[in-house]
Amino acid sequence: MRPDVEAGCVAATLKQALDILRSDAGAAYYRLARELDGMSIFIEVGQERFQLRCSADRIVFGPAAGAPDVSIRTKSTTILALIDGKTGVMDCITAGQLDLRAAVDVLPNIARASVAFAEGAIRSRKMRALLASFRQAAAAADALPTD
Amino acid sequence: MERLREVLGLIDRAHLPRPGSSQRHNFKEWYHFNVLDPEHGLDIIFNFSLAGDVSRAGAANADVIALCHLASGGWFGGIDSYDAVAPQVATDRLLIELGPNRITFSDGAYHVTWRLRDESVALEARLSPRAEPMLIWNDAPVGSGNLNWLIVPDLDASGHLTVAGATKPFHQVVAYHDHNWGHWKWGEDFGWDWGFATAPRQIHDAPALTVVFGRTASRNRAAIYEQTMAIWNNAELVKLFTRRQVRARREGCYAGDIPRLPGAARLIDQGRVLNVPAHYYVSARDDGDWLDIEYRIESALQIAVPTDFGFGLVDLNETFGSTRIRGEIGGLSVDFVTRACFEFMG
Q: What is the CATH T-level fold of the domain A9-139, as seen in this structure?
């Protein structure tokens, strides 16, 4: 079986991205955290799975008690296509490339949180460097032979 | 014109803010070039810009933009961002160096070497001015800030572009250059429409006319602040229409695909870009002098600039297309169709 990216890459990249957001674009980080306040989120990207939870304006990695409020399943290629503007969130969902499960009443919070993340990311040059390394890691994983 | 060529390298120097300037965090400056080679279906934009407090590491960006549109293949290129302390920018003459990118002026011409980090687009060009420059150094108001403008309206461009692994030479094709600097905040209530067109080189009997149009307005265009249409015949500036002598209007909505840079802008403003017109019309009248521009957009790309305060984006819509220009300037009858470039910001 081919790993989607090297082990831990997506979680580590997301953690670095949130750290950058908090230092370089604090307003975006706190808007993101406020939108996701009280939620636990399960993320699966290729073979990598992890959880994070939000409370008191902080986003913390690690398992939460009970079932997650939000579940996201996708691939790194889909994440890159979204970041590069080659596709949109709704297009990915309808094409089966992005599986998003959550209660209907929190979907607006998730949408606003993703906009806040992008607003911060687009203002940060460090984020562009992080994206470049994520892109490299994803490309390297893509080049690995399949089982 | 020869004297102007000699001094253009000095006139076109950078205008970095004075140390300690209270407005230094809102500083903006850029060098913008367009090259149009309609015979080979090639349109090029390259741009170097500074934004922010360039006196402190980490407080400003230096962006290198290289974009080209191929009639046969669509848009290529992108934006490379650096810290603004990275480039070497001279203030006593035109000299900009940033990694593999370089702009200088010598021997009466601009010399440009441009290469994106991912090597998707690379350019080597010599751009030789054919018309006298126009300098609008009046701190024109934009929002709470101000903007200055040096225009070199018509240049002969020769060189080659490497894109998608292929090298595309161009020889003595039409080019345009402008240089803006000032202090302003993206996101304040202002926008602009700007464009240029030069008569095709191959029409030897026709006047070698170049038209540059620009206007500032509120973001939704409900209020027009300033507008100017400048006309050169060969090297000489022969007519300037201003303010109430000029009318401009948009028509329709461009229906083609409009890529956005950076792509992540689509995560903020989802959906299609809808603020690029299908057609743009400009009319100027002053006694016996008149000129009408009918511009039809054929390709468009949006550069999304984050606002300098709060959240949101400012749209810089770059377009290329075909334009018909008709009129009479100083008894000289004008009627030609040519390639043109317009930008709509707001």
A: Nonspecific Lipid-transfer Protein; Chain A (3.30.1050)
Q: Are B193 and B213 in contact (CB under 8 A)?
A: yes
For residue B312, list chain A residues with Cβ-Cβ distance below 8 A: 119
Q: Which of A98, A123, A125 to mutate to test the interface with B (most CBs of B within 10 A)?
A: A125
What is the residue extent of each domain of chain A? 9-139
Q: Which of B61, B82, B263 sits opposite A83 (nearest CB)?
A: B263
Identify the burial level of B128 via C-beta atoms within 10 angstroms of its C-beta, where 0-12 means exposed, 13-18 middle and 19 or more buried: middle
B25 DSSP assignment:
G
Can you tell me the distance from the alpha carbon of B43 to that of B319, in angstroms, rounded to the nearest whole number? Answer: 10
Contact predicate B160/B114, CB 8 Å:
no
Residue in A28, A31, A115 closest to B267 by CB: A115
CB contact under 8 A, A27 and B311: yes
Least CB–CB distance from B270: residue in A86, A88, A119: A88
Flag if A85 and B263 touch (Cβ within 8 Å). Answer: yes
Q: What is the pLDDT of residues B42-99, one digit of tens each?
A: 999 999 999 999 999 989 999 999 999 999 999 999 999 999 999 999 999 999 999 9
d(CA A22, CA A15): 11
**Omega before B262 within 30 of 0, i.e. cis:** yes
Which domains does chain B show, CATH number per domain? 1-184 (2.40.370.10), 188-346 (2.40.370.10)
A108 CB neighbours in chain B (<8 A) are none
In 3D space, the residue among B222, B344, B193 whose CA is nearest the CA of residue B274 turns out to be B344
Question: Which whole-number Å values give the CA distances from A90 to A44, A93, A111, B175, in the listed order?
Answer: 18, 5, 11, 41
Model confidence over A82-128: pLDDT tens digits?
999 999 999 999 999 999 999 999 999 999 999 999 999 999 988 98
Is the pLDDT at B169 greater than 70? The verdict is: yes
DSSP string, B129-181: E-S--EEEEEEEEETTEEEEEEEEEEEEEEEEEEETTEEEEEEEEEEEEEEEE
Dump pLDDT digits (tens) for B263-287: 999 999 988 899 999 999 999 999 9
